Amino acid sequence: MLAAERRDHLLELLAREGKVVAKEVAAGLGISEDSVRRDLRDLAGEGLCQRVYGGALPVSPAAVDYRSRKSVAPDGKRKVAALAAGLVRPGGAVILDGGTTALAVVHALPRDLDCTVITHSPTIAAALIDHPGAEVFLIGGRVFKHSAVACGAAAVEAAQNVSADLCLLGVTGVHPDAGLTAGDAEEAAMKRALAARAADTYVLASSEKVGTASRFRVLPWGGISGLITDADPHDPMIEKLAAGGVEILPAG
Predict the structure, then answer these.
(1) Rounded Cα distance, 233 and 218, in Å
(2) Other Cβ atoms within 10 Å of 198 Cβ, number
(3) pLDDT at 128 over 70
(4) Strands, DSSP E only, in the chain?
(5) What are the counts of helices (DSSP H) followed by strands (DSSP E) for the chain?
(6) Exposed (0-12), middle (13-18) or buried (19+): which is 152, by Cβ within 10 Å?
(7) Nearest 5°: phi and psi at 118?
(8) Helix, strand, or coil here: 71?
(9) How far from the centroid of its chain's Cα atoms is residue 201's Cα?
(10) The whole model's pTM is what?
(11) What pLDDT, in 10s, does the model give residues 2-58?
C-alpha cells in the first residue's frame, strides 16, 4: 500500500472508529508499527490527528484561537448554552469558564437573574455588565490570549479561595478514552482548579468536540456531574459515555 493510500486509510479509520490503534492497523495492513507511527506523526504535524499512546485520536476543531472559534458550530453552542443557563438558580453562585460557549451561556441567562458569577475570563465579566442582578467576581492572573482567560499560578491560587454551587466548564476535546482535554497545560490546570471549587461541574460540549481529543487532560469522567451536548444521543461516542455511567444532558 502506497503512503498516500495508508494516509487515506488512517483518516477514514479516525472518522469511522474515532481512534487509530497502531498495532491493529499494522497487523491488518501487513506493515510495521513504525510505519504506522510515522504516518500518524505526519498527520499530526498537519493538524489532522492527535497522537496518543498506542495510536491517535481525532483532533478537535475547537483548538483554534478564540477569534476563530466564534464561527465554529454557533447553533450547537446556543443549544448547549440554553440548557446550561437553566442550571443557574436564583441566588446561586456559578463558576463560569471562558470560551465562546460560556459566552453564549451569558447571553442565555435572564437579564434580571440574581446570582453570583465567578470567572477567569475578562470577556465573560464584561458581557455581564448589562446584567444588573449578577454579582461578578473576576479571577486575575496572566492572560492566555489564545482563549482570552487568566491562567498561571496566581490565577490557580485565587481560584482556591472561592466556592460555588455549580461550575460550567468548557473543553476542546470530549472522548470516552482520553477523557476531557484541552490544548494548553496551564489552561487545563486552571480548569481543574475551577472544577474543584464547585459542588457540581457540568461540561459544555457542542457536537463538534465529541469524539475528539487535545493534548492535555483536564479531568477524567469521574470528575464531573454530567455532559451537556447537542450531539445525537445515538452517536457511538455518546452511547459509550452513557454506558460508562456519564450523565448526558441532551441539548436542543
Answers:
(1) 23
(2) 21
(3) yes
(4) 20-21, 50-52, 55-57, 93-96, 115-119, 134-138, 142-144, 149-151, 164-170, 173-175, 179-182, 198-205, 216-219, 226-229, 248-250
(5) 10, 15
(6) middle
(7) -105, 125
(8) coil
(9) 13
(10) 0.83
(11) 778 888 889 888 888 888 888 888 888 888 888 888 999 889 888 888 888 888 988
